[in-house]
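Summary of Year 1 activities. Much of the first year was spent building the evaluation harness for sequence design. The harness presents a backbone, in tokenized form, and records the residue chosen at every position. We chose the following record to illustrate the format because it has been used consistently in internal testing since the harness was completed.
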């Protein structure tokens, strides 16, 4: 996957700004990913989004606490969709089982619930105390 980094990736109140391509290190924990900053209309950094590529095909994102509750993560997903659509027809989205707000956003995107999975012990989320995730499939 070769992304054009200067695409206009925006939706509603957010714009994605390419930050870096993170390569997989030999023996590394994660697959390569494109890292984007999520910026609002006023130019405030409101979060970040990672598009994991290869067999994982996963979108992970985080909105800074002070900006949550404004559907910014839904807009960030919609903003990255045109780029994703060039390479994949489906991607995975996950949420902590008790994160009702994230699950609602994922459902608003039209993603299909697949299952609840264990977080692998070598995943950085596991080190942060996350042991289970709900897994969804989003058809772009």
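For this record, the design step produced the sequence shown next.
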């Amino acid at each position: 996957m070769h992304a054009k980094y200067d695409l206009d990736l925006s939706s509603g109140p957010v714009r994605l700004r390419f930050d870096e391509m993170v390569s997989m290190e030999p023996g590394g924990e994660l697959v390569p990913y494109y890292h984007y900053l999520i910026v609002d209309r006023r130019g405030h950094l409101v979060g970040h989004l990672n598009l994991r590529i290869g067999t994982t095909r996963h979108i992970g994102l985080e909105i800074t606490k002070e900006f949550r509750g404004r559907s910014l993560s839904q807009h960030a997903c919609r903003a990255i969709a045109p780029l994703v659509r060039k390479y994949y027809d489906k991607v995975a989205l996950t949420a902590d089982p008790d994160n009702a707000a994230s699950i609602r956003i994922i459902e608003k995107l039209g993603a299909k619930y697949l299952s609840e999975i264990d977080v692998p012990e070598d995943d950085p989320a596991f080190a942060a105390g996350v042991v289970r995730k709900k897994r969804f499939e989003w058809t772009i």
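The longest strand covers residues 14-22. Quantitative recovery figures across the full test set are reported in Table 2.
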